[in-house]
């Protein structure tokens, strides 16, 4: 909510708040008409329109869905169904096709014949993905902020997957020796960060929070206490109608179910897994090996950017089959997935003769230092490996896939030949690394996502919210060639 207020302060614009859940409706209650232009509520839209949609037969549902798809310029709703980690759990045909039509109509209501200064998007929900796909074709400036792989910086994706907004142009300027202030600043920042990172490699704080704290019992108990307090006080903060809608729309389960299923049970299974033989033995890091970190799933990184290789077991199996003779594949699971996968998953990985499972407690940077190459779908270790001068094999749509000296792969019969040729001829180029890092600085902005208590302390909220507003202005200006900016609108 602090971001909405910062848009009013810094951009002199009110916000059209799109609320997708009952819980979201509770959040906007703290805002007033001085900062909000209006609230567009999916819960209200759902209640008003779902009774009518339920009465339509299947053919009418599909015909109307295709009409709205054509209006939005969307070829199919199906990919975005599987990107949504909640909606994809629903296998009921009758319910799903009606929900798809409802979502399509809601997006059309938002975007068709409407005008916004910009659309701040997300692509972790079905509706968010539809907005991302349709916005540009309907004439909207669309930006999607996310935490960068650099500390305390934001990157902005656009309507397509691939490089960040402005990254390719920044790389060309840097490589050609441009001396404008923006380029010079990016090069200076890159040189400072590279020197610091190579001297003492470390992960961004958000990455550490999401993984390493799970190894510390005291920190985990503290998280339990925080979440337990939030759950206990939620009835005081959220109306019964809001909770009922979230359950009816299948956006949430029964009270406490998520805490038990998403935290408590996985933590118990994690403690058991880490005492099993696979994770207690030391894996040799001598000889040739490719390091492959697995990723959290389901999540945007695998559902959207790495969707072709979401099945990580199949990805490991196929890559292992195409590695050069004598090269092992060392696989390390994401700490957040420990306890979410059955132990049989790791046993199956070990059934491949040239695959070995590494304990999550082993340092990523120790593996990166000793490996011959790093392979990933879209993970941060691919970026870290590139910076450290390692060969990188990447399968998903992630910004560093497009860097020189990185091998972007698709499953194919000649994949093994491509990998062998790449590894045999690889030479790290410090200038290329520096230029790529500098282009990343030039296409990111120095601020956070303003997650209070996560990456932003309470006393820095207003300051970071103001920076976030300026970051959005900066990202919008980068789209000026596509959409000339009307500062009065």
What does this structure look like?
By secondary structure, the protein is of the alpha/beta class. It folds into three domains: 2-163 and 455-477, no CATH class; 218-273, no CATH class; 282-441, Glycogen Phosphorylase B (Rossmann fold, 3-Layer(aba) Sandwich). Helices cover 50% and strands 10% of the residues. The mean pLDDT is 85.
The major β-sheet equals: 6 strands, parallel
Sheet/helix structural class:
alpha/beta
| Model regions low in confidence, pLDDT < 50 over at least 5 residues | none
Question: How much beta, percentage-wise?
Answer: 5-15%
Q: Could you say which overall geometry the principal axes of the C-alpha atoms support?
A: globular
- Radius of gyration based on Cα positions: 24 Å
Strand order across the largest sheet: 8-7-6-9-10-11
- In total, the number of strands is 12
How far apart, in Å, are the first and last alpha carbons? 22 Å
What is the total number of structural domains? 3
Report the average pLDDT across residues. Answer: 85
Helical proportion?
40-55%
Number of helices: 22
